[in-house]
Fold this protein.
Amino acid sequence: MLPLYKKSARLTAAVILSTLISQLILMGSGISEARANQQKQPNILFIFTDDHASHAMSCYGSKVNQTPNLDRIAREGMLFNNCFCTNSICGPSRAVILTGKHSHLNGFLQNGNKFDGSQQTFPKILRKNGYQTAIVGKWHLATQPTGFDYSEILVGQGPYYNPPMIRNGERVKHVGYTTDIITDLALDYLKNSRDPKKPFMLMFQHKAPHRNWQPSPKHLHMYDDVTIAEPANLFDDYAGRGTAARQQDMTIAKTMTPNDLKLTPPRNFTPEQLKVWNAAYGPKNEAFRKANLKGKDLVRWKYQRYMKDYLRCIASVDDNVGRMLDYLEATGLAKNTIVIYSSDQGFYLGDHGWFDKRFMYEESFRMPFMVRWPGVIKPGSVNNELVSNLDFAETFLDIAGAKIPDDMQGVSLVPLFKDQANNWRKSLYYHYYEFYNDRRSAHMVRRHNGVRTKRYKLIDFYNLGEWELYDLKKDPHEMKSVYAEPEYAQVVTDLKAELKRLQKQYQVPDDTGSVKKDPPSLYLKPRNSGAAQKKKPVRKK
């Protein structure tokens, strides 16, 4: 018979050994589970363009062009009919997407601001959750990207040809067409620079189709023998709108420059590129000069030149999206990669006689948004809920299984992807800031905020003391404000209350009085123009 202490020692040893084995099994299980979770995390490919109006995409019913590769994303995923931006201008939209916060909180209210890269952004959070992050293409936030393992960005807006870029802080030079180059860089990252054992989040961001719409050599003659359909309100007189619609400086008739219209030689081209360019535009420009067009005929010519160049730039984007989709399919990455397509805001395609964006009117407020997620999103789905670029950061984090910070202001769209959303939001908030007292702003659009529901839109041009209300069911092109009509009195009351509620929810500071009603900036000479001083604008009484 063994002594008692020897029995106890053996028993203790057995217990310890058993415990160690159990812990090792659990640890192994935990490691396997962690690896499995990491493998389950889908890759995220965010394809982003600049100023791409949804009504210049065939999947959204375009009457002016075809976008077969972008249509693939919609056909194989979900198309959102009601995605809107919080602030319709390049830099602010990008800052909202990175932070999940409105402009007044992320600090980037207007172009010319500098993004605070020390603040919380979704790429930083994704990195902490096992993702490798990269951005290629247009950044336009004035400071260097943070939160990315790899970045190669355009300098400012960047040119359409031969772009200098900043690769991980170092300036490099490329020769070629920028849309092609950005795609080459994105593909090279996927092929050669990432760790294939980790999920990736790649922001693949084009300059196109931003002004001044320089097509690629491949597309210079596209639409030469086509007449682009005109919008019904190309010659809008703004009779149904207020002061802001008349004071803007963004008409095709008066604002477009010879550079926009390709009547002056481009800069930054190689001799070979310039030769091809001049061969395409030279004969057409000579015919234009001989025609000596005036009045509406001149406006119509400008519209055709603008739209053909804009659509040519989109054709290049579509081709390069096709290159990327083909690569994902060929390598098998498509099975576990979420593909998202969007643009920083919409754009006026001659609507109201305009180009550019900024206003809360539908054409520039609305964003294209399509998502393909194999095995999760039903192919060919269409969603009509109100969503926003404010929701993108939260959505990316939710896709990755990361915790969404409480101070982000949007909501994840994943429930909509899975058709599991209940009690979705009924309204969206908008706020545009870029207008000044003592200097001209680009396109001179007055500061305004507003609220949109599925049927109505209320806009407050708060420094003018003017409101506009649109019944989008009866007046989808927003030709006549019904703010003062008695039958809409209750709608006005309800929407004003909703606007205040949203401003409180989003902690929006009062900007009323930030610019005078009749500021000196209205009478300053426009940049890039030989026009005389503006006459004092006439206000609607």
Observations:
- Confidence is low (pLDDT under 50) at residues 1-38, 529-541.
- DSSP finds 13 helices and 17 strands in the chain.
- The two ends are 112 Å apart (CA to CA).
- Residues 4-40 form the longest helix (37 residues).
